[in-house]
Amino acid sequence: MVKKYRFRKGFAIALVALLVFPTLPGGMKTAFAAASDDIKTTMDISRGKITIGNGTVDGWDNYGNQVFEPDPDGYIIIGSTSPNNTSKCVAITGGTQNITLSNTSISSSFGSCPFSITGNASVNLTLNGSNSMWIQSQSGADYAAVFVQKGSSLTISGTGSLSAYSRGHGAAIGGHASAEVGNITINSGSVTATADLAYGAGIGCGSGGFGGNVTINGGIVTATGGPYSAGIGTGRYGIHGFVNISGGTITATGKNGAAGIGDAAGYTSGNPIRISGGSVNASSVSGAPTNGSQAVYPVIIAIPNANTNISGISINQGGAVPLMFAFVDPEILPCPTATVRAGATVLISPARSCFS
Question: Is 1 exposed, middle or buried (0-12, 13-18, 19+ CB in 10 A)?
């Protein structure tokens, strides 16, 4: 629902303020925050750059009116940019912000970041419809498509989708090249993060980057790293933070010897990877992943009958189900229905005995 009268209300308040207080120190003008009414302000990226800070906002609404009145309820961002866009982007510079992407597409070709979170900002990002953040060429080589600076955080939820794509040394979602990364959490929605051509991770660090905790509690997540870079974790020459997976359906692919989840090729960060739930299909997992209390092992689970249910996951066909990653104690292996297979990394269930 659009706040149709917000501009008029804000304009009237600002006009009165200017009549009463013609100037402020430094010649600045003032704007007043609206009271909460549970309706977010709609902003259109196709009309210009959107900057949202702690008690500040600058951009344009879907009617072409300038938005300068902060909204405590948050913002809905709509619209799209051309592939050769150089200036239209979303910059979150501070505060706790509730933002919905609604069929939004932002592309950049010339060294700008489509969506950035800096200044210790905390962003709750809701996905509605189909959304994309793309760096189209290597002229934006050091940028992430969605940048989360150290000290800042991004939490993704919703029923829609987000596709983030970087062709440079930055991650698709996470860090610019050589940057320290903040915290990334995915609770729901469909998220596809692809790094291509250069050395960024799908989700995590850019090339030579540091830190950044990645938590996945739900949703459908597909992450692909660039050359020598992890799908979820770190780009080449970098060190990833903690990776925690407790739910969702995750597919993670590293390239040129990098882990699907964890380290870049030839590097070992030593930071833990915890897998305690969900369905995880990774090209590999670096280090020794645990479920928080014990190691988890790659196994193949044989399902003898159709429509067998294993810990809430319905298998609708008989035969072997490949690439399963289960909590199976090594003392009971091998057994008739679960055998270790190196490189198989799909988490399916906590179990202390063979499935039948």
Answer: exposed
Q: Write out the H or E segment, with its range, that includes residue 131.
A: strand 130-135
Q: Could you tell me whether strands 297-303 and 319-327 are parallel, antiparallel, or unpaired per DSSP bridges?
A: antiparallel
Q: Where are the domains of the chain?
A: 113-282, 298-350
Q: What is the DSSP string of 280-331?
A: EEES-B-S--BSSSSB-EEEEEEE-STTEEETTEEE-S-EEEEEEEEE--GG
Is 118 within 8 Å of 91 (Cβ atoms)? yes
CA distances to 121, 188, 194, 213, 236 from 273, in Å:
26, 20, 21, 10, 18
Residues in Cβ contact with 312 at an 8 Å cutoff, skipping those fewer than 6 apart: none
pTM for this model (two decimals):
0.79
- Beta bridge pairs of residue 51: 58, 91
- Could you report the per-residue pLDDT of 98-140, keeping only the tens digit for each? 999 999 999 987 667 899 999 999 999 999 999 999 987 665 5
Encoding tokens for residue 172?
């698709």
Q: Residue 157 in contact with residue 128, Cβ under 8 Å?
A: no
From 186, 309, 310, select the one nearest 246 (Cα to Cα): 186
* pLDDT tens by residue, 157-193: 999 999 999 988 899 999 999 999 999 999 999 999 9
Q: Under a CB-based contact definition with an 8 Å cutoff, are residues 201 and 164 in contact? A: no
Contacts with 96 (C-beta within 8 Å, 6 or more apart), sequence order? 121, 122, 123, 124
Rounded CA-CA distance 72/98 in Å is 8
- Kindly list the strands in the beta sheet with 146-148, ordered across the sheet, starting from the edge strand earlier in the chain: 66-67, 56-60, 50-53, 90-92, 115-117, 146-148, 173-174, 203-204, 232-233, 261-262
Residue 170 near residue 145, CB atoms below 8 Å: yes
DSSP structural state of residue 83 = T
In this structure, the number of other CB atoms found within 10 A of the CB of residue 64 comes to: 10
Q: Which two tokens stand for residue 133?
A: 């953040």
* Residue 29 neighbours by CB distance under 10 Å: 11
